[in-house]
């Protein structure tokens, strides 16, 4: 198993993306620690992992609460013996479908502020332990896309660009400690769209239509890519993004 003996923290572990990564990590032997603001979805994912023979624990916390995140990271490292993988896939609270010229300032800035704060807090919490053990992988999700895909996405594109900038800086600073920092770029995962979302089918179709393979990334694709990025098979990959957009992103 590719992640046997590794300990992984997934912020937003009760969501579709976080759950997919957690199940894939556990399948490959990792002990997963699911963190999020709501207990029920975390427990559902943990129950699935345990039913499949994996190891999963949950914790209710807000990734914007630095004290809580630090305490949780300390608890994980103390209980498990190491903190090897950190993945942040929390929701950013972005507003889409509204032109920037008609958008409220707070709606535009919310995802930017959330992304920067949560990325900083969770990466720093993990880095403290990874620097001591001289190893570890910090994963981000989303990544920047081509300019023409930013229409009516509000502050989301700016938020993703901010994450990429932070990822590059973290990779430079943490590389000497053996820590890798990688982004997974999907171009959109239709399965992760809320079931009650207005225009869901149309949005899913547009995501697939923008690809070269005429299909978008699936949750299984995301999980498999996350496992690869976190494993020793990707030992020489850092400071960059792994593109799983099925050709939607060419830059």
From TrEMBL:
Domain of life: Bacteria
UniProt feature coiled coil, ranges: none
Keyword entries, A-Z: Oxidoreductase
Cited CDD domains: SDR_c (cd05233)
One Pfam family it belongs to: adh_short_C2
Claim: Oxidoreductase is one of the keywords in the record: yes
InterPro entries assigned: NAD(P)-bd_dom_sf, SDR_DHRS6-like, SDR_fam
UniProt record similarity statement: Belongs to the short-chain dehydrogenases/reductases (SDR) family.
PANTHER family (UniProt xref): DIHYDROANTICAPSIN 7-DEHYDROGENASE
Listed name of the protein: SDR family oxidoreductase
Lineage: Bacteria, Bacillati, Actinomycetota, Actinomycetes, Micrococcales
């Amino acid at each position: 198993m590719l992640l046997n003996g590794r300990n992984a923290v997934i912020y937003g572990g009760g969501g579709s993306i976080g759950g997919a990564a957690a199940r894939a990590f556990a399948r490959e032997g990792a002990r997963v620690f699911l963190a999020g603001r709501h207990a029920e979805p975390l427990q559902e994912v943990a129950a699935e992992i345990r039913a499949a023979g994996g190891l999963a624990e949950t914790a209710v916390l807000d990734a914007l609460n630095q004290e809580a995140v630090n305490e949780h990271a300390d608890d994980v490292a103390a209980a498990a013996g190491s903190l090897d993988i950190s993945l942040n896939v929390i929701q950013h609270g972005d507003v889409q479908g509204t032109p920037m010229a008609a958008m409220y300032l707070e709606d535009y800035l919310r995802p930017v502020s959330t992304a920067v704060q949560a990325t900083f807090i969770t990466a720093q919490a993990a880095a403290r332990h990874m620097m001591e053990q001289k190893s570890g992988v910090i994963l981000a999700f989303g990544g920047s896309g081509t300019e023409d895909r930013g229409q009516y996405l509000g502050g989301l594109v700016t938020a993703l660009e901010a994450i990429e900038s932070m990822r590059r800086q973290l990779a430079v600073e943490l590389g000497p400690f053996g820590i890798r920092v990688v982004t997974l770029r999907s171009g959109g995962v239709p399965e992760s769209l809320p079931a009650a979302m207005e225009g869901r089918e149309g949005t899913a179709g547009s995501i697939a239509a923008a690809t070269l393979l005429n299909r978008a990334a699936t949750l299984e694709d995301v999980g498999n890519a996350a496992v690869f990025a976190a494993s020793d098979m990707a030992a020489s990959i850092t400071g960059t993004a792994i593109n799983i957009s099925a050709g939607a992103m060419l830059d």
